[in-house]
Amino acid sequence: MAEAHQAVAFQFTITPEGIDLQLSHQALQQVYLSGLRSWKKRISRLKNNFITGVYPASPSSWLFVVIAILATMYTRSDPSMGLIAKIQEHLPVSQSMSLQCQTVVSAVLFSTLLWLSLIFTMRLCLKQLLSYHKWMFEQRNKMSTTTKVWMALVRIFSGRQPLLYSYQGSLPNLPVPAIKDTVKRYLDSVRPLMSTAEFERMTTLAKEFEGGFGNKLNWYLKLKALWASNYVSDWWEEYIYLRGRGPIMVNSNYYGMDFVYVTPTPIQAARAGNALHAFLLYRRKLNKEDIKPWLLRSTVPSCSYQFERIFNTSRIPGIITGIKIYIFTLFISFPLAVDAVVHWQDSDYVAVHHRGRYFRLWLYQAGRLLSPREIEHQIQRILDDPSPPSPGEEKLGALTAGDRVPWAQARKEFFSSGVNKRSLDCIERAAFFVTLSDDEHVIMGDDPTPCLDRYAKALLHGKCYDRWFDKSFSLVVFKNGRHGLNAEHSWADAPVVAHMWEYVLATDCFQLGYNEEGHCKGDVNPSLSQPQRLSWDIPECITQSLSVAQALADDVDFHVITLRDFGKGRIKKLRVSPDAFIQIALQLAYYRDRGMFSLTYEASMTRLFREGRTETVRSCTSESCAFVKAFEDVCHRLFRMACDKHQNLYRMAMTGAGIDRHLFCLYVVSKYLGEESPFLKEVLSDPWRLSTSQTPFQQVELFDMVNHPEYITCGGGFGPVADDGYGVSYSIIGENIINFHISCKHSCPQTDSHKFGALIKKSLTDLDQMLSAEQKAARNEQNTGGNSTQAKKDL
């Protein structure tokens, strides 16, 4: 009650003598300072919007143009060729404004219009320059003259000191490929997976589609591309993520791990204190747009729009019901309720879960971000709270882990009003979600693999009810100080979350640090109010969701491999792309495991385009299959061909010439038109039995891998896409480390994550030995040839 009284700024009582008004100066000060923080953020946002809006020019360049125009006029020249005089003629004239003043105002208006025209021209030029992608297919040390000139022009038109979103208006739109090109690439990708009869049948379907219905569908996509920023992204988010009715736990959400070989402090509250403070520091940088845009080869910008929804974001469940109408010849179904991603402008608290109870933890006091030590103190208060969960509260989070329809129905029936709605709003509007787990995960021993496997499963699904899987991300802090991340997938892809996570890990250990006792540094303000316990009135409505989620979690088989003596540096010495090397190794491992090849998914980014997300690289190619089959004969030439083909496919996917997103959008249009395409139906029914993704390590400069090699994250992973397939996430860290996260399902007798992991390690070793032997033989041959030449000269 004391906290509630402190929150009241004033009280008044009506008495016979009049109104007795009592003011709380402390509370009024808190209100004032909180409002001041809010207005500072609004002003900062307006300032950033203006700076981004005029980029690649700067606000100061306007003053330069004005001064240049006025100086030219002072020399009795007219740089506007009569336009300033025209503006002066139509200028509303005031009696108090002299002729000279009117001339100056007209010149300033002309200068402003000229300045805006120059900005528009520079943006248009930069947009056209960024549409050039041949640089992607050239080696850095063998760039053509055209590419070198192009890179110089991009640097000239890119301006200086860009903010996070400065390049958004200059990025080109994702192009719509020609039907014939996509069909040709598709047939090339499935050729090694089909028999001759199956391939001939598919070729016939593809040619019929290409010559008829496909062109009509592509016309609608081109129409959409004219007015939409990206013809794929909105449909991808809605149909792939938000319309899915199955559980998002395991099937969609993914996780990120802590440092593998070190835990900075064994105190749970202290680790949470530093981590929460670091997250809010990152959000402050994000709000100020003080994060450098990601530049490929230090020149080419990528899209940053996914950063907008990192914080204060939640997925809201919905039930699919809809109305159907015709617009001209277009048949459209409008869903009235489907999952939605909702983002709030700001939130100054986090939602915390501990032992089945939910708390609201304020992270600001009087507009000031709490110090790590103060946050640790507040977390410890939650850990020390002995109160039991209220009825139905303990396993409430299972609603977000199970099927979406029961969760949407329960939300509508039990959480649409009263105390339940207020508490649910508190969780959904929180900056992010925090789980304080009573479990411990210690990575120890010469072989930490079993510990890592359990740690991965704990982060992916936990107990199925101790996460809020709908939040943009949840921080999980274990009892012994180790922590990790679980992220919802619909709002952004893993590289965006990984960028934030790298910053948090580095800031936690290398900037904030801990004292000798393992506590956060700093002092505690004794006037901090208690974390607020959330109240609920919940019937027993979560049994079904929990049973579905528990069955799914129990079925997941996980295996984590960390290779500390086999990394990018070793692969580059073999003169091979590290990603291509790993993908060929995965093909070799899968063939050894199953005795067959499978359609393989590798995620590639399309952030070179505005609002770009991902594209599929079909890693199982005719070249890779030919090499795997001939591996026992040690065919080096086939390996090089397979790697070159993979690199080419990856680059084509990045530059908008992929296969699957185009086919997906064509399928969506066909559904809107109410017409079936046998070709598209068969294409989109193919299962991805080997789904792979590389999580890039982006901020190497934040870590000291030479002096502190133990402060290295193990990356993250995801669940299997197909019930009879594998999910493989890998991260290449520095020159000497590669981490693999392998998932499959126990219910499938043909899959085994540990067996597949062993095959991956063997395939990597075999490829390394093959290429090393090739290099050694080439050197010996070169030395022999050199000696023979020298002998001839001596004779």
UniProtKB/TrEMBL annotation:
Q: Which family does it belong to?
A: Belongs to the carnitine/choline acetyltransferase family.
Q: Which Pfam families match?
A: Carn_acyltransf (PF00755), CPT_N (PF16484)
Keywords assigned by UniProt, alphabetized: Acyltransferase, Fatty acid metabolism, Lipid metabolism, Membrane, Mitochondrion, Transferase, Transmembrane, Transmembrane helix, Transport
SUPFAM superfamilies with a match to the protein in the record: CoA-dependent acyltransferases
Give start-end positions of Polar residues composition bias: 780-795
Q: How does it sit in the membrane?
A: Multi-pass membrane protein
Q: Which GO terms describe its biological process?
A: carnitine metabolic process; fatty acid metabolic process
Organism, by scientific name, is Denticeps clupeoides
Might you report a single GO cellular component term? mitochondrial outer membrane
- The protein's predominant localisation is mitochondrion
| EC numbers on record | 2.3.1.21
Q: What region holds the Carnitine O-palmitoyltransferase N-terminal domain?
A: 1-47
Q: Which reaction does it catalyse?
A: (R)-carnitine + hexadecanoyl-CoA = O-hexadecanoyl-(R)-carnitine + CoA
A molecular function annotated in GO for this UniProt entry is: carnitine O-palmitoyltransferase activity
Q: What is this protein called?
A: carnitine O-palmitoyltransferase
Subcellular localization is given as: Mitochondrion outer membrane
Task: Name the pathway it acts in.
Answer: Lipid metabolism; fatty acid beta-oxidation
Signal peptide residue numbers? none
For the region Disordered, give the residue spans.
Answer: 773-795
Gene that produces this protein: LOC114770513
| TM region(s), chain numbering | 50-74, 104-126, 325-344
How would you classify this enzyme at the top EC level?
Answer: transferase
